[in-house]
């Protein structure tokens, strides 16, 4: 793969909002972006950012990012209430296939402004930059408070008025200053949630080719149905139904790419009641019909 440096331009539409450095003029902040649930676009190729830390704050759904070191690609999957960090010059990509729908904020921090970072004085500016660079993991847990403050910061800065931007930067600074205190996410998925919800994830994995009811999952965890749904959303940032759909769509992608099974057979294999319903869910998730996905993304 050929690496490159990618710079996004200013954009403001229903699903993608990108505030660039020349638009907001905040020292040390490059792009500040908000991506809402939408049909996925073209996969992002292998690229890097010089002198920039990039942080994706996941609000809802899941997003895979691959980092490259030598000739090895390592995949990191961030879900709701998690963040993913890439460091200066670190090669990364979203892979060669379209991503699931998700909502996240993206923050690019330019560390060359370390003496005036976010308008802080030299002492605090240098301290914050050192603190961010000390974060040596890629995935971290975060709480609803970080998302709430970041959303407020984005909204205030997007208004474009000096007083609002000043307040927005204070919110953003609070979010960033708290990041080194977050707990890293262990590598294995089932270790990222409590043992009880892990039982539900294991059940979903083992029964992904069957219809799965939420009551079955609640029974596995010995929670009431309402408690199970609440606890699941708290742990993973998405509902059980959304998680099941994402896992079925992941399996569908694999089957479309690696087998010659008909779309109807794949639909029934994954426990869908009809091929029409399967096609509808698949297209809603990836913006491609299963047939178009197989044609465009199956590698020879």
Automatic annotation (TrEMBL):
PROSITE patterns in UniProt: HTH_ARAC_FAMILY_1, HTH_ARAC_FAMILY_2
Transferase recorded as keyword: no
Annotated ranges, domain HTH araC/xylS-type: 198-296
SMART domains: HTH_ARAC (SM00342)
Pfam family membership, one: HTH_18
Gene Ontology molecular function terms on file: DNA-binding transcription factor activity; sequence-specific DNA binding
Top-level taxon: Bacteria
Keyword vocabulary terms for this entry: DNA-binding, Transcription, Transcription regulation
InterPro entries: Homeodomain-like_sf, HTH_AraC, HTH_AraC-typ_CS, RmlC_Cupin_sf, Tscrpt_reg_AraC-type_HTH
Protein name: AraC family transcriptional regulator
Taxonomic source organism: Blautia obeum
């Amino acid at each position: 793969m050929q690496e490159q440096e990618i710079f996004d331009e200013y954009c403001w539409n229903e699903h993608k909002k990108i505030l660039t450095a020349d638009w907001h003029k905040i020292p040390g902040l490059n792009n500040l972006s908000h991506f809402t649930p939408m049909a996925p676009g073209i996969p992002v190729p292998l690229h890097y950012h010089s002198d920039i830390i990039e942080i994706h704050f996941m609000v809802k759904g899941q997003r895979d990012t691959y980092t490259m070191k030598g000739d090895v690609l390592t995949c990191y999957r961030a879900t709701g209430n998690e963040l993913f960090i890439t460091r200066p010059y670190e090669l990364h990509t979203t892979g060669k296939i379209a991503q699931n729908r998700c909502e996240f904020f993206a923050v690019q921090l330019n560390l060359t402004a370390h003496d005036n970072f976010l308008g802080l004085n030299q002492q605090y500016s240098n301290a914050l930059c050192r603190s961010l660079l000390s974060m040596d993991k890629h995935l971290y847990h975060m709480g609803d408070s970080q998302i709430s403050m970041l959303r407020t910061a984005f909204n205030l800065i997007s208004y474009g008025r000096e007083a609002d931007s000043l307040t927005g930067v204070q919110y953003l600074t609070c979010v960033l200053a708290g990041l080194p205190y977050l707990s890293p996410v262990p590598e294995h998925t089932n270790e990222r949630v409590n043992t009880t919800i892990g039982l539900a994830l294991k059940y979903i994995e083992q029964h992904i080719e069957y219809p799965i009811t939420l009551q079955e999952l609640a029974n596995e965890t010995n929670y009431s149905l309402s408690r199970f749904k609440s606890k699941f959303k708290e742990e993973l940032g998405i509902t059980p139904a959304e998680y099941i759909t994402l896992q079925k769509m992941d399996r569908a992608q694999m089957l479309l790419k690696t087998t010659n099974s008909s779309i109807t057979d794949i639909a029934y294999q994954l426990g869908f009641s009809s091929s029409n319903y399967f096609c509808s869910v698949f297209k809603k998730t990836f913006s491609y019909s299963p047939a178009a996905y197989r044609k465009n993304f199956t590698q020879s």
